[in-house]
Write a structure and sequence with these properties.
homodimer; 118 residues; mainly alpha; Arc Repressor Mutant, subunit A; three-stranded antiparallel β-sheet
Chain lengths: 118, 118
C-alpha cells in the first residue's frame, strides 16, 4: 500500500455556522496571513503552499495556514501531493456580508500608502 | 496643588497615520472588545469605563481598553476623574472606508444568530 490512510489526509474545517467573527478577525490580524488572503482573493482556482514566497520557515508558514483554515477563512485540500488553498468567500460573504471585501480594500489602501511613503 | 501632573493624565494614542489595519483587526478580534466597540458605536458622546458592566476584573477591563486605544480604535481621555472612551470613527473611516461599519454589521448579525440559536 502506498496510499496514505484517508484520515491523515483530511484536514479539519469548521462548518459555516461554526465560523466566528472574532476568529476571522484574529486570523486576518497578522501581516503575513493578510498577505496570503489578498493573494488568494486574486486567484479563484486555489494556490499551493509553495506558490507563496514567504519570508518565514516552512513550519511557521504551515502554522499561519492552519490558523486561517481553523478560523474558516480558507479551505485547504490535497490535489495529488499538493496542498491547495482557497478563500471561503461564499461562506464569509454569506455570514458577514461585505466584511471580506472591506478588509481586502483596507489592506490594499494600506499597502498603497506604505509604497508611497517608502 | 490638587491637580495631577499632566504627564500622568495624558494617555498615548497613535496618530492617524500610525494606525495599522492588522492592529485594528487584532483589537476587534476579542469578544469583549468587540462588545465594547459596539456599545461605543451607539453613543457618540463617549462612555466612561464604569458604564460597561463587563464580566471581568477591573485590571482585565483596563487591559482591553488599552489594547483598543493603542490600536487606534478608541480615544480615551479624562473628564474630571472619569475616563471617557469614544470610537475614533473619523480616523478609521478615513483610513479604511467601510471597514468599521462592516465589522459592526457582522457583529450584529452574529449576535442575532446566537440569540436565535439560544
Amino acid at each position: 500500500m502506498t496510499t496514505a490512510a484517508p484520515s491523515s489526509r483530511v484536514l479539519a474545517h469548521p462548518a459555516r455556522d461554526e465560523i466566528r467573527l472574532e476568529g476571522v478577525l484574529h486570523a486576518l490580524s497578522d501581516p503575513l496571513r493578510l498577505l496570503v488572503v489578498r493573494e488568494l482573493a486574486r486567484d479563484d482556482a486555489g494556490l499551493s503552499c509553495s506558490h507563496f514566497d514567504l519570508p518565514v520557515t516552512k513550519s511557521t508558514c504551515t502554522h499561519h495556514f492552519r490558523v486561517l483554515r481553523e478560523a474558516g477563512v480558507i479551505q485547504q485540500g490535497y490535489r495529488g501531493t499538493a496542498k491547495l488553498n482557497a478563500l471561503r468567500r461564499a461562506d464569509l460573504d454569506a455570514l458577514f456580508p461585505g466584511l471580506l471585501d472591506s478588509v481586502l480594500a483596507a489592506a490594499a489602501l494600506q499597502a498603497d500608502r506604505s509604497a508611497h511613503d517608502g
